[in-house]
């Protein structure tokens, strides 16, 4: 068995978690969430966490579990809507929040993985986003300086992995997962399927295994839909 493959989320997280750490968690809404690793972190009881994620789950699911359990001290996110607990804790001062434009959040994470300490962007100039940050002019336009984001641990959800940790994501479940996989000191990935070495095909790999430290096969996936939108079936025409 590959040295990267672990039998359970608990085994993969052993020796990695500590109070006050920073964790990146993949996902966009409820798509591409590490559904098996998050409950294991909850059960481990680590606290005072800084969590970097697009959002903080939804009521009763995903990162909401850590929030509800009082384990998260600060969120670095780009979307906080439709999570009543998140809203309540932020407004009461119990939760710190660093809100980012979504593209800026993704680029800060990518920069962290690429070893780029800072970069400039036009997004946020003249708004609260730019408060306290250097602003410079380039070719007649103002740009705000943003810093990289890195984490002690990145928890990532992929579709398939091989024993070396090469990853393939499925459709929009890819979202923040590939950039987060590069930006953690330790990257733990949960997948739906572990295939044989070479089965993925070099041209199909989204994340090279060099970024991946530990792999588990998830026991189950709910793959919930936040808002189910349907339309009536068209009535059959009379024959």
UniProtKB/TrEMBL annotation:
UniProt-recorded name of the protein: CoA transferase subunit A
Transcription keyword on record: no
Organism whose genome encodes this protein: Phenylobacterium montanum
Residues spanning the membrane: none
Cited PANTHER family: ACETATE COA-TRANSFERASE SUBUNIT ALPHA, KETOACID-COENZYME A TRANSFERASE
MF terms in GO: CoA-transferase activity
Domain of life the protein comes from: Bacteria
Any Pfam family hit: CoA_trans
Family matches, as InterPro entries: 3-oxoacid_CoA-transf_A, CoA_trans_fam_I, NagB/RpiA_transferase-like
Assigned keywords, A-Z: Transferase
């Amino acid at each position: 068995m590959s040295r990267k493959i672990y039998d359970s989320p608990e085994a993969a997280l052993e020796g990695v978690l500590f109070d006050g750490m920073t964790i990146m968690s993949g996902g966009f809404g409820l798509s591409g969430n590490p559904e098996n690793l998050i409950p294991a972190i909850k059960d481990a009881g680590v606290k005072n966490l800084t969590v970097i994620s697009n959002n903080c789950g939804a009521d009763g699911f995903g990162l909401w579990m850590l929030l509800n359990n009082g384990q998260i001290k600060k969120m670095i996110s780009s979307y906080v809507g439709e999570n009543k607990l998140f809203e309540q804790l932020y407004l009461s001062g119990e939760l710190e929040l660093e809100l980012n434009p979504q593209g800026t959040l993704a680029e800060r994470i990518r920069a962290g993985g690429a070893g780029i300490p800072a970069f400039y962007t036009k997004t946020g100039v003249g708004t609260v986003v730019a408060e306290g940050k250097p602003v410079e002019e380039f070719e007649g336009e103002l740009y705000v300086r943003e810093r990289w984001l890195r984490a002690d641990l990145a928890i990532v959800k992929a579709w398939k992995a091989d024993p070396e940790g090469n990853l393939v994501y499925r459709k929009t479940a890819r979202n923040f997962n590939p950039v987060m996989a590069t930006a953690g000191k330790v990257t733990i990935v949960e997948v739906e399927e572990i295939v044989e070495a070479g089965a993925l095909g070099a041209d199909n790999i989204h994340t090279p295994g060099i970024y991946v430290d530990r792999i588990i096969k998830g026991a189950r996936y709910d793959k919930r839909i936040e808002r189910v939108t349907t339309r009536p079936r068209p009535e059959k025409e009379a024959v």
